[in-house]
Every structure is written in structure tokens, then in C-alpha cells.
Amino acid sequence: MKKGVLIALITGGVILLLIVGFFILTNKGGDTSPEQNANANANSTQMVDCGQITNPSCFSNRMSSCLPVTAKMIATDGTTTIEMTVLGLENNTCHFQRKLNNVLNLDCYFPSGALSWDLIDQSFGNDKGLQSIIDNSCTNV
To answer: Whole-structure pTM over 0.90, yes or no?
Structure first.
């Protein structure tokens, strides 16, 4: 191999190592949001407020285990606020509530382990094949 090509390869490798080292040394783990930090630090009895859902995992991680969590969404019409709250386990059921514009309109006691995004989607009338669970578990208020 020619001496100039070898020097160029070595120089390129050193530059690449410096760039990778810079990113490793300057990454302080700050990629988590306040929502994720609250979610990770909360125990099973503390309510976690995920705020307006910009990171669905804040809500869904706790929802899937029926841990207390609340979050808000703004409907596509821009005028409707939807608040979803999991209050936790009560008598082996998962207590879920939905408010539209700050008015409770759905109160549910789902079988343990049943609460999912598909079930919430079904509660809005989007057919996921779960209507019987909604009918048996929820009261329209």
C-alpha cells in the first residue's frame, strides 16, 4: 500500500475515534423526558401525571400494569380535551375514567390485565372487537 493512502486511512480512523469518543463523553443520559423520569421513579400507589400526551409511553407503561396515571389529549377538532385516568386496582379490577372537557363521561372497571390502547380506542367507538368488554365494564356518566 502506498504511504499516502496509509497515512490517510490512519488519519481518518483517528478522527472517527475522536468523534465517537466525544459523543460518548458528552452524553449524560439526558435523553429522558420529565414524564419518563416521573414514571420511572413513581411507585405503584403514586399518581403520575403525564400531562398532554406527547410521549405515549409515559401513559401506556403504567396503564398496562394498571398503575395510577393520568394524561390529556386535545382532539383533532381542537376544542375537545380528553383526560384519561387509571386510578389503579380496585377489587381485582382496573379502574379507568375518561373525561371530555373536564366532565366525567365514562367510568370503567376492567378485568385485571385487560386495559390496553385497543380497549381505550374501542371506548371511543373504533371497532377493535372489544365492545363486549366495554359494555360489561363501563358506565356512561
So the answer is: no
